[in-house]
Write a structure and sequence with these properties.
Elements lengths: L3 E5 L2 E8 L6 E5 L10 H7 L4 E5 L16 H15 L4 E6 L1 H12 L4 E7 L8 H14 L5 H8 L2 H6 L1 H12 L3 H13 L3 H4 L6 E6 L7 H10 L4 E5 L6 H4 L1 H14 L4
Parallel strand pairs: 3-4, 3-5, 5-6, 6-7, 7-8
Antiparallel strand pairs: 1-2, 2-4
Length: about 270
């Protein structure tokens, strides 16, 4: 497939659109330090029925860095701009980690556009001010490489790292090759982002998912988010870390499929 790119908010956003153009639209937004390829095994199944959009947020993958500072509204406006560019007006958004905050912010800003939410390993507020500042300063001093092993422990379960060491090394490379500017900019957005008040106003079907071994957004954090969102469902995936789309894409796909069918989103 040829590379697809759109001019959005003063930079360029790399994206992929697959599946039937007349199908229900599902958009996937990735986590910090990853690109759209983390969804490949999920998209490969769902593209039979869904018009699927994946994309690299600014500062990640093949998208442009754009201008600092970043905030969650900027990331959300990038996604809104991409949807405008593609002429997509009613979408389901599946967001992972910071992608989940982007999904929540798009829902806050344009509730008429969002039909449903799938929030994976995320929360309305991620981490704390001091923790993000410590990470930012470490990267400024020594680059993302210095945090590579520690972040893998947060991303992937111990079993995955042991049994699939080669793939773990590949995902570590994905992380450390992210631009420092884009990574730090998104850390700032996460440090300053707080959507707790908005969570209680979400009025679309919402599925909250978490891996039981997630050290970045532990299950109790995601479960609390589900309690904040009216009528949200919560699903725990046993033995999985922060990236269920990589560790157990088949199970994640089944959960998404069931959720969309039960809520008449297909």
């Amino acid at each position: 497939m040829s590379l697809q790119v759109a001019p959005i908010n003063g930079t360029h956003i790399h994206y992929s659109q697959t599946g039937p153009k007349d199908g229900p639209v599902m958009v996937f937004a990735n986590s910090l330090g990853t690109d759209l390829r983390i969804w490949d095994d999920v998209v490969g199944v769902l593209l039979q029925r869904f018009n699927i959009v994946t994309y690299d947020k600014r500062g990640h993958g093949l998208s442009g860095i754009g201008d600092a500072p970043y905030d969650i509204s900027l990331h959300a406006n990038d996604l809104i701009g991409l949807l405008d560019h593609l002429g997509l007006n009613e979408v389901i958004i599946c967001g992972l980690s910071v992608g989940g905050l982007i999904a929540q912010k798009v829902t806050e800003q344009q509730p008429q556009r969002v039909r449903g939410l799938i929030l994976c390993d995320t929360a309305p507020k991620l981490g704390d001010y001091d923790g993000w500042n410590a990470r930012i300063e470490a990267i400024k001093a020594d680059g993302i490489e210095v945090l590579g092993d520690a972040i893998m422990e947060r991303w992937l379960s111990q079993g995955f790292r042991k049994d699939r060491a080669l793939e773990t090394a590949m995902y570590r490379d994905m992380l450390v090759r992210t631009t420092a500017e884009g990574y730090i900019g998104t850390c700032v957005a996460l440090r300053d982002g707080d959507l707790c008040e908005a969570a209680g106003k979400i009025a679309v079907p919402t599925l909250c998912i978490c891996g039981s071994e997630d050290l970045a957004t532990p299950p109790e954090v995601v479960r609390e988010m589900a309690s904040m969102i009216p009528d949200a469902q919560f699903e725990l995936i046993d033995g999985v870390g922060h990236l269920p789309c990589i560790e157990t894409p088949e199970l994640l796909t089944r959960l998404i499929d069931r959720f969309t069918k039960e809520n008449n989103l297909v």
